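Changelog note: in this version the structure field was regenerated for every chain. One regenerated record is shown below for reference.
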Amino acid sequence: MNEPKLVVMKTILTLFFSLVLSLGNNAIAQNLKPYWGGLLKESSFIEAQSIVRDGLEAQGLQILGEYQPAKDVNRWVLVYTSKDLKSAVKSTGKERSFALAQRVAIYKSAQGIHLSATNPSYWCAAYFQDDFASIQSKVKATEGKLEGVFKAAGISKPLAYGSEDGLQLDDLYEYQYMFGMPEFEDQVKLKSFKSFEEAQAALTKGLAENSRDAQLVYSITLEGEKVALYGIGLFGTDGEQKFLPIIDIDDPKHSCFLPYEILILDNEVYMLHGRFRIALSFPDLTMRTFSKIMSTPGDIEDAMSALLEQ
């Protein structure tokens, strides 16, 4: 082979391998993990809460509620939403309303105080599915504000965590823990009522009557729509104190996967299936660990259903 042809072939091979590496790097970059996190400089748990509240408000993010998951004195969760998330749901459909509530958590351990948050792109990809591309700019806008919260807390670049390899967008659009397990569409219908207002009244009554076992953390409605999302802390015998210590065993903690939520759509009440919602929160959970909480999805359904009894 003469020299000019050899040079051309080397050039082609170089370009080919560069393209392959580029595509590989892009694929890795697209892998999403469920949480962001980082260590705070503050040693005061109360001060850390105040810093996060101030940060959320400074970024124009609406704080919906906050609580202590599993009544663990080392954990605190704040729930927020944004105008962009509301707009995204309105433009794609009310069934996507589970994406309205994003969460920030503070956890105290031997290493210090850890700040974490749900990764909006990860959770929204799972909830908006094929519609995600059309609203991705709105999600990115919310992410930009969340980054501002971390920066205000002294964390310039939060670490993505919660899954060793992460998940690609296509996997999140059709997420299930394994073949045969529930997907986003396989939601549990808890109850039907005569009207949206009756459903709201029944839930309000149920929360008041079951205040020992259930706590309303937040509620959010969409203006002009018969849709309401509720975050509920579950403190009964089979609630958070039972399942959280079994599955949230790694550091950093996954505290901000809670609280669990239920959604009123028109006159019907739904929750995400536990084997979808919990698996999405812990995508690397081993089958052995999952088997230890086999009753938890049913326990959560029973607890939510009890709040709707009339």
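Spot check on this record: The first strand starts at residue 35 and ends at 39. Residues 5-28 have pLDDT under 50 and may be disordered.
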